[in-house]
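Input/output pair, single chain:
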Amino acid sequence: MRRLFAASLILFAALATSARADTYPSRTTTIVVPYPAGGPTDTIARILAERMQSTLGQSVIVENISGAGGSIGVGRVAHAAPDGYTISIGHVQTAVFNPVIMKLDYDVLNDLQPVSLIADTPIWIIANKNVPANDVPGLINWFKAKGGTATMGTVGVGGPTDVAARLFENQTGTRFQIVPYRGGAPLLQEMLGGHIDFAFGQAATYLNYVRSGELKAYAVLQPKRWWAAPDVPTLDEIGIRNIDVSFWHGMWVPKGTSPDVIAKLNGAIRVSLADPAVQDKFRNLGQQSGRCSSKRPRRWRRSRRPKSPSGRRSFARRASRQSEDAHRARRENRSCHRKPVNNFPMAPPMSDSWAAGAAWSVRNFSIGLRRRRACAGSTSVAGTAPSPKS
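Output:
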């Protein structure tokens, strides 16, 4: 009798979950942006929200909950009900860097479920128009002449732009003052007003201001020139190598959300990204939109994979060899006596899933961080990150 009762409860719960998925959405869905209004993440969210509501048949609104490098807003979603009505939009900092450098009250990998990759943009070096240097060598000389008093704005201490700046310092022998901001929008206004000298920032945030001459762009932090600003050189061309950083955006829901609900959200995002009007808006912002498979919503977009003329099998063999080589290298290089590598584990090329890619990035960045701490004998890196509760 007890077994029959337990089976009935399980069946009732399954039917209730299925019914909720069938009627989803029946009310307003909220996209939580963990940064202030007007920044790149907020702009992407509002473009998608406007288009997604026509596909879902219900209103989709945007709520800005900023602070602590984006961890407060992400935490709000991680602790929300897993019903699909509260969505998080985030990027490489909220999904990869924050879990490593901050003490969070949630687990990015275990408390959130990925929905879709959205867009990608590189990081570049920009400055207000009053900075006298016109190229990177001139900028380096200007930094040295200022004697460490030049100011650099950053969104989130210990985040990708902050770490990129510190790697740049180490490679060029320069020093500057780093000023943290709650988001890209307030940093942009401060730079336009001449209160901050320069920044390492998401290229999409500053593109239109560089085009209008209000800001200067010096270099892009990726191996090849950026399609949206082909006249801006890469750091590799200048001789500063292996500082390659990009900012990808994605969407998450609380863990435990029904797969059917996730599939509906994924489908709405795919329809939005396929809309020519949305593509034009993204292109004008300097964002390269991602594509997500309807059957595999976690799939890492194909442009992230190593290109192989021999097709899938060759790619699989190469990925397997890369994985084995990486595992062997970790076993053989447990000591600190090895040449440091500056490339960030932003987007692992062998990953077939961008969700697994984020997990891979967190794990490997954490390993590298612990190794650097052990080698340096220190207890912190890239400054002290604020607690999400502060």
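The mean pLDDT is 78. Residues 354-376 form the longest helix (23 residues).
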